[in-house]
């Protein structure tokens, strides 16, 4: 009997250590990205742009929420471990309180993450009202889904598994489904912009083998959006009983809040870094353009027919069109 108890204690301890370790690793990755995002936004200046100020504030709020979520998870695991060693200790009340903190912090980050995703797709199209209406509906759906899921989790935590909470089990699938739909639509809008941008580049500049900085950022946003959608698909599948083991459910439940914090932070970094690169490229181009002295040879060429002009004139004009296209895509970004 004691061997069975000892084995169960060892298994529980192993599961708790694995869960906390994986949560700590993903939190460490997020912290590095959050610091990078804050540094880039501060370097560009917050007073010059309302969008940068809002993104910086959201970055701080996500950091607070993610830190609070990790602390709540660690304390909950410690309370469970304490109950394994002390037979008379009942952690139920403490776990209920910390469950509230986990729900509040994690769901808050879900909503902020979706808000940043919607914003990123929103600013890409300022001339298509139907897309913005669709994004607004997605935001409302995500908010409703998160609110219902939060109510279910809290009701389940305080009801100790009674029938009233069990009857709400089907509601839990609403949140990941709504968040998935929102991210699929936002990612599809980014994919549409990638296609339109490539078509515009091909029409104005011809066939190019090298990707522009705007295209690279848009593709990164598209690829990261697809990965994030896959995470929510796995979340929906994991709600089916028996799909994941007990430790698998705990590990994924620990990873998901970190992933929802990492994704919007990556969006902030991609967009802000793209802005810095664009401004640097424009400044360098202007410096080189005005630094070239006027030579007698160039002056003498102005009176010659169009066919005899130097061959470098066309690439220069193409370069100007490329800068105009890139600035058109990123003017509303940050």
Quick tags:
334 residues, mainly alpha, 82% helix, disordered C terminus, membrane, transmembrane
Residues in helices, as a percent range: over 70%
Summarize the biggest pleated sheet. none
Class inferred from helices and paired strands: mainly alpha
Mean pLDDT: 75
- Counted by DSSP, the helix tally is 10
CATH fold-level assignment: Rhopdopsin 7-helix transmembrane proteins
Regions with little confidence, pLDDT below 50 for 5+ residues: 276-325, 327-332
Strand content range = under 5%
Task: Give the strand tally.
Answer: 0
Transmembrane segments: 16-42, 54-75, 100-122, 129-153, 173-195, 216-239, 251-273
Keywords: Membrane, Transmembrane, Transmembrane helix
What can be said about this structure in brief?
The chain crosses the membrane at residues 16-42, 54-75, 100-122, 129-153, 173-195, 216-239, 251-273. By secondary structure, this protein is mainly α. It has helices at residues 2-44, 50-85, 92-122, 129-159, 163-166, 174-205, 213-238, 246-291, 296-301, 313-330.
Description:
- By secondary structure, the protein is mainly alpha-helical.
- The protein has one domain: Rhopdopsin 7-helix transmembrane proteins.
- 82% of the residues lie in helices and 0% in strands.
- It contains ten helices and no strands.
- Helix 8 packs across helix 10.
- The longest helix has 46 residues.
- The protein is elongated, with a radius of gyration of 26 Å.
- The termini are far apart.
Describe the secondary structure blueprint for this structure.
Elements: H1 2-44, H2 50-85, H3 92-122, H4 129-159, H5 163-166, H6 174-205, H7 213-238, H8 246-291, H9 296-301, H10 313-330
């Amino acid at each position: 009997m004691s061997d069975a108890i000892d084995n169960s204690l060892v298994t529980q301890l192993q599961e708790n250590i694995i869960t906390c370790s994986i949560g700590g690793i993903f939190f460490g990755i997020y912290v590095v990205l959050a610091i990078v995002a804050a540094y880039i936004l501060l370097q560009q200046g917050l007073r010059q742009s309302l969008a940068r100020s809002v993104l910086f504030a959201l970055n701080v709020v996500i950091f607070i929420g993610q830190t609070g979520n990790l602390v709540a998870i660690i304390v909950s695991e410690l309370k469970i471990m304490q109950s394994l060693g002390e037979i008379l200790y009942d952690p139920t009340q403490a776990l209920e309180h910390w469950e509230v903190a986990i729900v509040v912090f994690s769901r808050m980050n879900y909503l902020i993450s979706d808000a940043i995703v919607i914003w990123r797709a929103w600013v890409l199209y300022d001339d298509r009202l139907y897309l913005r209406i669709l994004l607004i509906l997605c935001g409302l759906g995500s908010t409703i889904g998160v609110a219902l899921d939060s109510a279910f989790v809290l009701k389940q935590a305080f009801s100790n598994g009674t029938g009233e909470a069990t009857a709400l089990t089907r509601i839990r699938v609403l949140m990941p489904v709504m968040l998935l739909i929102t991210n699929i639509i936002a990612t599809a809008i980014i994919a549409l912009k990638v296609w339109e941008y490539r078509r515009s580049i091909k029409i104005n500049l011809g066939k190019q083998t090298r990707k522009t900085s705007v295209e690279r950022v848009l593709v990164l946003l598209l690829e990261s959006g697809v990965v994030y959608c896959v995470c929510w698909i796995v979340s929906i599948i994991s709600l089916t009983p028996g799909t994941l083991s007990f430790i698998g459910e705990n590990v994924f439940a620990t990873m998901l809040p970190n992933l929802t914090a990492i994704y919007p932070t990556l969006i902030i970094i991609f967009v802000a870094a793209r802005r810095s690169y664009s401004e640097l490229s424009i400044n360098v181009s202007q410096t080189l353009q005005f630094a070239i002295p006027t030579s007698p040879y160039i002056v003498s060429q102005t009176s010659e027919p169009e066919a005899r002009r130097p061959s470098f004139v066309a690439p220069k004009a193409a370069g100007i069109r490329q800068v105009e296209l890139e600035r058109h895509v990123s003017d509303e970004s940050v």
